[in-house]
Every structure is written in C-alpha cells, then in structure tokens.
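Researcher: Here's my situation. A collaborator sent me these components and asked whether they could plausibly form a single complex. I don't have experimental data yet, so a predicted model of the whole assembly would be a useful starting point for our discussion.
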Amino acid sequence: MDSSTFLKKGIVGLVLLVTIGLLSLAVTFSRMPASQIIINAGVIRSSSFALSFYDTTGNLLFSVSPQNDYFYTNSVKDHLEDKISASSNGNFLQNVWTSLRSLVFNQKELIWNTVGSSANGQESVNYTVNQVNGGVEIQRAVAAKSNIKSLGQVLQFCADCLVTDDKKRIYFNADTVTQADLETAARLSLTPVVIGENQFLPQDIKEVRVIDGNNNLKLEIPVLKAQVFLQYKWRLLEFKASLKNNGTAVSQEVLLNE
Amino acid sequence: MNNSLIDLLAGLSFYVVPYLTGRIFVKKTVPAWVLGALIWFILYFVLFMAGSILHFDFQSAVKASAAVITLASLFNIGRQLTKERPTIHRRDVLIALALSLCTALVYFLIWKRNTPYPLQLDWDIYEHITLANLISSGKLSFFASKLSDTYTFNSYSPLFAILLSLPKILFQRSLLGVYWGIEYWHYLLTTLAAFILAKKVFSNNWLAFLAAIVSSLVFESVVVYSTLFLIPQTLAALITIFVAAEIKEYKWPLLLVAGAVILLTHYVVGALCLLILAALYLAVRVDFFRKHINLALLISGLFSIVLIAANLFISWSVPGREEAAHFNFQLLPKIGFIVDWYGIFLFVFGLLGAVKIVKSGTYSQKILLCLALIVLGIAFAPFSYFLKFYVLGHYFWSLIIALGIWVLIANLSSLLKFIGIAFITTVLLITFYKNQLVYKAPLNFKSYETQISTSEIQAANWLASQNKDGKAFLVSDPATQYILEAVSGVNSQGGAYMGLRTRQTLESINGYYDAQVMQNKLLSIKDQVATGSNSRTFFVVGGRYFAWQLLPKAQKDSTFYNIWSPQEITAADQTYIDYYKRVGLKVVYSNKEMVIFSL
C-alpha cells in the first residue's frame, strides 16, 4: 500500500470512528429516562396524569396537572384539560439535548407535554420544570392560537400539610374550618385567617409557605403579581397570573426545603 | 488509619490469603489462588469437624492456620525470589499502574461518588454477608439452605462465603465496610482479566489496553453485573477468564482443581464456565478442531441466531418460582439493555470485530468468536435467568469490540491512534456514566445513592449489641430484615426471602388494634432453620416497613418486590408508631428511620 492510500484509509477510519461514537452517544442519550429528574431537593416524576414532586426521603410534596390548572378567557374560567388523552416527555432531539445538559452542565430539565380535551376545545399544555437555586421553576405553556388571557397555576400540596405565609398567618376555608384547625394554629403560634374559596389571599403576601403539622417548612412559593386562591378540602393552591412570552406561557418558582 | 482504608486493605485478604496458601505448592498466580481457595474450603470443614469433637474455638483455629500458612508462604516466596532474582518488566508495571489508576478513578469518583463508606449499591451482598457471618461464628454446612432460611435453594456451595469470612475472622471487621472496598479489587481484577486475555488472543498491547478499557466501562446493570459486583456468578466468570487466558499451561490436576473451584463458586454459571473451558481445552489440544474451525464458527453463529430468534416464538420460566417470571425478558427489552450498557458499540464494533476475525483472524481469535457467539446465544435465549450467563460474554465481547475499534484506527500514526482511543474512551465513559446514573436513580436517599442508610447501620449495630448470646430474633418487612440480619447478625425469618406465612402474618397485623394479639402473632413467626428458642424478639418498624405495608397484597406476597432504598418515617407512619407505644409495645431503640420494639 502506498503512503497516500495508507493515510486516506487511516483518515476514513478516524472519521468513521468519530461518527459511530457520536451516533452511539445520541442513542444513549435518547434512552435516558425522560420521565424523571433528580435534583438536590428531591425527585420530580411525570406520569400520565400529573407531575409529582418528592422530597429526598421519597415523600410527595406537591403535584401539578392540567386537570387542576385553570385557564381564564374574558368570560370563562375552567380546567386546562378535563381529560388527558396523551402525554410525552419531549422528542428525540429534546431528550438528547436535555440529557446532555444534565450530564455536562448539571442543568436538570423535565419536559412534560400533554394533550387533552377541555371546555375550550382540544388543548395542549407543555410543562417544563427546571432546577433553580433552592427549588424548581415550573413553566406552563399553552398554544398561541388559544384565546386564553391568564392561567391559574395550581399546586396540589402534601397530605396533612398547612398553608401559611411570611406574615405568620395560617389559612383555612370558611366552609371546612374546624375547632381542631384553630387549635393547630394556636399550637404553631400562627394567626388563623379564614377565607372563602373564591377569595384571594391578602395582597401583602410575599411568600406562600406550606408546612407540616410540626411546623416543618415543605415549600415556599414567592408571590409576584399573582392572585392566590386556596381550596383546602382538595389541598389546592391556585396562583392566577397573566400569560407572558407573547401570551403563551407563565412561570412559577417553588422553593423546596432540602 | 481511616476505616475505609483499613477495610479496603482487609478486603485484600479475600484474594491474598488463598493465593499465599496455594503459592506454597504452585508458582503461577491464578493457579495458586485457585488451589488456595480449595484448600481453605476443605480446611474450614476439617476445622469445623475437629472443633465439634475437640471443642476448640473455630475463629482462633482459622486465625492460627492463616498465620502459619502466611508465614510459611512468605518464607517460601522470599527464598525463591533470592534464588531466582526475577526481572520486573517496566512496561508491565506501567500498564498495571495505568489500569489501576483508571479503574480507581471510575470506581471511586463515579460509581461510589454519592455512596460514601460504608453505604452500598449491590443488593445481593447482604445474603453473602449473612452466610459469611454464620460461618465466622463456627456454623458450617455444604448446603447454604441448612445454615440460613434466607437461602431457599442452593445455587452455590459455601466456598464464596468461606473466602468472605476470612477478612471478618482475621481482621474482626464488619463485612459491610469490607465489601465497600473489596468490590474495587474485583473491578480491578476484571479489567486485568480482560487485558490478559486480550494480550493472549491478539498479542498486541494497544489492543489489549483497549479491551481492558471497554471491559471497565461496560457495566451490565441488570442481572449480569460482571464488573462492579463481587458475587458468586461474577467471581466464577472471573476465575474462568483467568484460567482460559493460560489454559495451554494448565496440567490436568490443576485444571480439575480450577474446575472444582469454579463449580463450587456457582453451580449454574459454573457449569457453563466448565463447558467453555472444556471446549477451549479441546480446541487448543485437539487438531480436529483446528481443521474445522470455520465450520465451528458457522455452527456457533447459527446457534446464536436460532436462540435469539426463538425470543419471537417462545418464552420459558422456571416453574414454581414466582420470581423467575420477572427475570424472563422479551427481545426488545434485552436489546434496550445492550444499548444501555454499550450504546451501539456491540452492534457496530462487535460486528466489525467479528467480520475481521472471520476474514483474517488467527485460530485463537476464531475460538474467541465461537465462544462469544455461543454465550451470546445462551444468554439471550428466551429462558428466565439465562441473561446471567452473559457474565462470561462480557469479557469475550469486550475483546471483539476492541478489535472492531482497532480495525478503524490500526492504520493511524501513534498520535492519531491515541486520539482515537481517547475519543472512544470518552464515549464509553459517558455511556457508563449515564448507565450507572439510571441504575442508581431508584436508590436516591437524601443526598446519597444507597440501599442502606446510616441510621439503619446504627440500628443494626444496636441490635448486634443485644445479641451476645446469638439467640436474638428480629421481625420486620423483608428488605429491613435482609439488611439488618446481615449487618447485625441477628437472625430473622428468611430475610428478604421471607416465607409466605410470615408475610401473611405481617399483613394481618397492619392496622390491628390489639397489642396482645399483635404481639402473639409476631411471636408466632419462627426461623425455619435455627429452631432453638429465641432469647429476645425485636419488632423493627421504619419508613421501609410502612412503605412495604402500603404495597398491594400481591406484591407483599412476592419475593420480587422490595423497598429497595431507605425511607424516613413519615408523619402518617409516626401515628402508627405512637399508637403501638400507647397500646403497650415497648420501644427499646429509635432513630430517624427506625423504631425497635421488644416483644
């Protein structure tokens, strides 16, 4: 073999090697489980009906679902999806990219796309969860063509948890509050506030906090230009906010106690 | 000295003591270890029987034997070294150092990064620790199932546990910590085995080094576990590879000893290992095979294709074993496993290497391909547990993949060759990283990845302190029992392989409101092997116990489902615990994850 053929063969071999290697990496990344991410403060999993956030010991902190979230048009308030007909965790390229970012830059992202039916017709909602310092940022995006003005971002918080704020107030609904609730408030040295389900939490709140019965902090949700509702019997907290990003998305930060 | 370092060194005795023993009779390293392992296996039975007649302390006898043998062997080695003055090849030392460094980086910085000493990632070790603890305390039988009801059938002799008991007896260390380090030595040895076999087959240092890299960065994270887990099946395969690499130099008696040790290490995987060694021995010694090697290749290829294709038509599970059905995978999941372990390297470079061997391979390379195809076919046949057999395939295919890569870089200059190998190593490293990340994801607990927590170890240590007479007994969910029995030495009914009756008894007390009835039910649980009366019975509850109680009944009745990672006690669990206290169960120990009641 003359030297130029030898060299050409070698270069072709190297190019093939690199191509196969890159292809192998793409296939590897595409098989990264896309339905779960592990962050410093816990684990986030998507299922066919919800995005669930667990703490480091495996206890459910809260969940998010288009069946709980609301949309607001000029005249209607209703759930984003009454029934979820399909869900996915992004396409091949998105999976490769998110896996790569996770492995190389430790930037954790979970994509959960849902399609379902609602009073507004067929609706698709794309959830993107990113790890941020101390917790997660949850972005909800709806189709641009829809006439939605605002979204009610709903968290279904943990069983036996309580809703408080940065002003040492604890919230209950008028139709469900009991003597035991008031005793709990007294035991935790918090001021009980009883509100209706369609009534906002006070406007001076900077943070909504979710605690357990022993006053251990579970979640902190900074409140910026959002109106907050509480449905205690379903353990739902709704944060109503206007759509951003050319009217398609809203974001919410939830700080998790590590 | 820090505990992890002490245990890392203590773990070496698993390899060094048998080696020194065999070294008195045989000079070569692997035959010496194999012979030494068999000697210790026999010696334990001799000491056990003599002890039962003469009533001496078993541990002291083992220690004294080890001391005498070690001194005699070291004296013998010293004498030989001064007489023969062997030369040390600098290149061999450099290669060994490079492989040690690479494997140490992968093991300690990636695999054990979030699993600090002595936390663990290998679920199987606890039953081996339990058996080794029993043997250390002077109990011995050829059948593991007669020593502990954790063993419901005997798929191996106590040889592995006997070797494992050496660090425990000689250094009086807990085997949990020893295991943290011992698995590194196993990992290093698997890499060396791949290197040595590749060197024999290809006679090329670069290629052998590449094969070692492929071997060290491919972890079969389901059923097989060749490299990172030290368990009987992986040890049997490792010994087989070391023997196979030098089979030409083995004489019959030594080959029989090696065969016996491999079979005693694991009856099922060992049987395949023996068949492979027998085939290799015949292929090397009998001319008939040399003449018909291409036909053998064709038959091996067809054999492999037929067995893999059979997945499309049949599926067979071991009857009467519920667990077996869970270890019988369909073809697509099996292909998925390969992608998780190798990326596309097995499909592309494996094929390229195989083609290269068929076209222009040497006789030994063709034998390698025959064996690789046979093992691949068997491992991927549609039968439950057969994937285990890939533990041998790991080595063969690492070599063939390395050859496939070599085909593409052989014509390059040394610099470009180095760049090519560095690139492939990076790709394999990322594949390994992702693979181990997925394996460890369900084991995430607080900031660690582990199957056992510090609180569980503390509870086990407390239990051990209550078991001076060796008659204490514990009852909990299967996973908690399995872990605590291994670490504390306190007996339980079946560990993770708890009998159905015990499972039903535990199910029946869930939500029960009469302390006396609960206590009676729990006290009715008895070990199926150790039939003597228990001095104290402990009821251990924790996050795992309550999580197990929340499983559907079918899963609670199954040995396949366990709570694999530690769990903290939740507020709801605490309500139960408070209730147990109120109705009169006595708390004798508690921490964040466990509460122990004395019955």
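Model: Some features of this prediction you could bring to your collaborator: The first strand of chain A starts at residue 36 and ends at 39. The helical segments of chain A are 3-30, 92-105, 179-187.
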